[in-house]
């Protein structure tokens, strides 16, 4: 354990990485792990209970939905949609938010004022409602879901990182770099960005959990992927009609969303505790 980096020794980080690894394996190897085709309808096995319940079928370990589709297979393939949105949307939001945060915090003045007002106006809209409005304009599809989340959530990064950049800009080594003749771009990338990187990594891991929830909401209302693609939010919407006959069809995707969001959140919390030097020093004292 001593040979591992400090951040990797954290139990929270290890737990989060294990959960994300499990989800990643399900997403990558879904065709090999899923016992059935997620879209194959078996009308003779509608609402089959899980295998451990009386009337269960070993062919469908977690049962079937109202169309006779395998719940376990749809859960496994749904991990692909969830992780695709989580990684692509969070990276896109991070890039845009970090760019404007560093520009606002470094230059200050009217640049900071303009960017700050844009962020405040953008944050005045409820995120989910704004996502739905954007989806109405952009249309359905996984690519548009990612774009909508990026356009909504870049402000999260910008607002938090801006204050950190302002603190780092006042450091002596940043002033020394400016006196030596470093350009603005070199000062930001060489002197300020390394200081904000731990916070940036933490925010990105937390944003992945948020992106999974937003995608589930959009797929729940039918504004995400098409019906031919398995998604957890879509599974919840389909299971509502038979909640009393087959409650596990509703419980399974809800647990999958909780499991994924818990993994990203506990990873983000562990990274924050180990990478943030101020928290580390406080705990030691």
From TrEMBL:
One of its GO terms (biological process) is protein transport. It is found in: Cell membrane. It comes from the Bacteria. It is a multi-pass membrane protein. Residues 79-268 form the ABC transmembrane type-1 domain. Keywords: Cell membrane, Membrane, Peptide transport, Protein transport, Transmembrane, Transmembrane helix, Transport. Gene3D superfamilies: MetI-like. The keyword Hydrolase does not apply. The keyword Cell membrane applies. One of its GO terms (cellular component) is plasma membrane. Pfam families: BPD_transp_1, OppC_N. The chain crosses the membrane at residues 12-34, 81-108, 128-152, 199-226, 246-268. Belongs to the binding-protein-dependent transport system permease family. This is Dipeptide transport system permease protein.
């Amino acid at each position: 354990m001593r040979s591992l980096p400090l951040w990797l020794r954290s139990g929270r980080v290890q737990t989060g990485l294990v959960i994300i690894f499990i989800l990643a394996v399900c997403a990558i190897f879904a065709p090999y792990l899923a016992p059935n085709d997620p879209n194959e309808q078996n009308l003779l096995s509608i609402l089959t209970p899980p295998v451990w319940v009386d009337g269960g079928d070993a062919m469908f370990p977690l049962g079937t939905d109202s169309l006779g589709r395998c719940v376990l297979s749809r859960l496994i393939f749904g991990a692909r949609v969830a992780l695709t949105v989580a990684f692509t949307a969070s990276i896109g939001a991070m890039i845009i938010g970090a760019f404007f945060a560093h520009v606002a915090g470094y230059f200050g003045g009217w640049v900071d004022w303009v960017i700050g007002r844009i962020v405040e106006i953008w944050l005045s809209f409820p995120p989910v409602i704004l996502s739905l409005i954007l989806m109405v304009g952009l249309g359905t599809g996984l690519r548009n879901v990612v774009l909508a989340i990026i356009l909504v959530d870049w402000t999260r990064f910008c607002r938090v990182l801006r204050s950190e950049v302002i603190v780092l800009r006042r450091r002596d080594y940043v002033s020394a770099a400016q006196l030596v003749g470093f350009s603005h771009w070199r000062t930001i990338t060489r002197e300020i960005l390394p200081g904000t990187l731990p916070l940036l990594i933490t925010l990105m891991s937390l944003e992945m959990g948020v992106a999974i929830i937003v995608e589930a909401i959009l797929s729940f209302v039918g504004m995400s992927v098409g019906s031919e693609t398995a998604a957890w939010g879509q599974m919840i919407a389909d299971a509502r009609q038979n909640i009393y006959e087959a409650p596990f069809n509703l419980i399974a995707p809800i647990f999958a969303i909780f499991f994924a969001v818990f993994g990203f959140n506990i990873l983000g919390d562990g990274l924050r505790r180990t990478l943030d030097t101020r928290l580390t020093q406080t705990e030691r004292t």
